[in-house]
Amino acid sequence: MSDVPSTGVPAPDGEPSAPAAAGHAPTAPATPALGGGAMASVSAEAPKPLHDPDPYSTPPYGEPGPWAPAPPVQHPATTPAHGMAVVAPPTAPEGPPHGPAAGQHRVPAQADAPATAPVTFETAPPASDTPVSGPWARYDPWAVAETAVPLQQADPAEWQAGRRRRRRRRTLLGIALLIALVSGVAGGVVGVQLERNGGVGTVELPQAGVESPDRDPDSVAGIAAQALPSVVTLHVSGGGSAGTGTGFVLDRRGHILTNDHVVGSAGDNGDITVTFNSGDTAEATVVGRDSGYDLAVVRVKGVRGLSPLPLGNSDNVQVGDPVVAIGAPFDLAGTVTSGIISARERPITAGGEKGDGSDVSYVDALQTDAPINPGNSGGPLLDTKGRVIGINSAIRSADGGLVPDGGQSGSIGLGFAIPINQGKRVAEELINTGKATHPVIGITLDMDYSGDGARVATEGSDGGPPVSTGGPGADAGIRPGDVITEVDGRPVHSGEELIVKTRAHRPGDRLELTLERGGEERKVSLVLGSSDGG
Predict the structure, then answer these.
(1) Is 321 a residue of the active site?
(2) What is the pTM of this model?
(3) Catalytic-labelled residue, pool 235, 255, 261, 438
């Protein structure tokens, strides 16, 4: 195959025309004749080739390389060279079987036609019937992309409308943010004002409706409701002193039981005023009193509708049983407290302010943690059925001393009550005879003895014998110097404790005593005698 570069054709203005196909050099002046033997003439002076002939046939100026087929070349049928006319080519006879290579141009030879005749080009048929494959089969430098979209200018009206819409959205967003900010600030201010000023308008707080005042009879409230009408407050004055205590009604005849140290300041000519839970008051007089038991009975006259408190049995009380105490601590009448029984048969002594021991009381007491304070003295200690099981009498003070709760020491949870079994017996004697009897053994004790147990003195008081002649102790064989260590099988550690345990009995009760004499242990039995209390 020979290299036949195409030529540039001068335009009517005298300017060279564009090359026939990109990537090919201009051809020689002479070209083969067009179909039908007709010849087309060109200018007498052919333009100088743009490139020198390539003796090595190097692509793109020579033949296509072995790595790719020659691209097909098409004439720019719709876009002719500037200033050139396009005419339809005549029908050309079929060329030889082996024509120019695909992609090569046939250049018409010169003829007798005028120099200004237009020149047409014909694309040579492919060398074979096999279509060219690969990327070059679709390559056409003059083709217009089918998917190309011509540039269009936006409609000014639509652009302005979109701009206005965006501006409107920004304005609305700004207004919404401003409203939210103002609302937040206003809400905060209103909230602060409501918090400081307690809101607006009148305030109505939720409240439970009216309920029945009735409570379970065995509850603290139920016990208090039953007992309070029978509990009184005593205001005592006389001998230059005054005090407040508590008492409770024993019967409908107006007898009231209280502590001896409550009415002690009244003496023989003092005044005693009783105030009931209803607020009614009445004057009272002393029926009888006993400092050894720290009990007294007073009576009010002309009062009707009295409601006595029922009496329980202190022997049935067990440690841990719940109890309720009622009194007038520090003159606060009708005060109710609750607790439990902390201990039973707790031997205590109280009083002793006179110095001669005549006002000392010996009590085999019930211990409770129900708060008892000055003013609770003489008040009832109740069980869960509202029955009296003790008479509140003493408290352990904060400084360690045991004093009647008429003193000014506060409760530390150690309160003591006289068992009602003992209180009932003493009250009956005071009401019936004005005096109470004390059970006695008929011996004198050595209160200075520091050993364990209660020691019988070697000398009697007031010059008498230490063991009373004909008394219960003498009849049982007790001698001076004996040490009593047990009463009814329970240990005795001091003389005071022996007195307490003896007074817990009635005159005529039998006691079983254990004593030591000369290092030997002995057991004796005796029947308690009786003496008048002071």
Answers:
(1) no
(2) 0.61
(3) 261
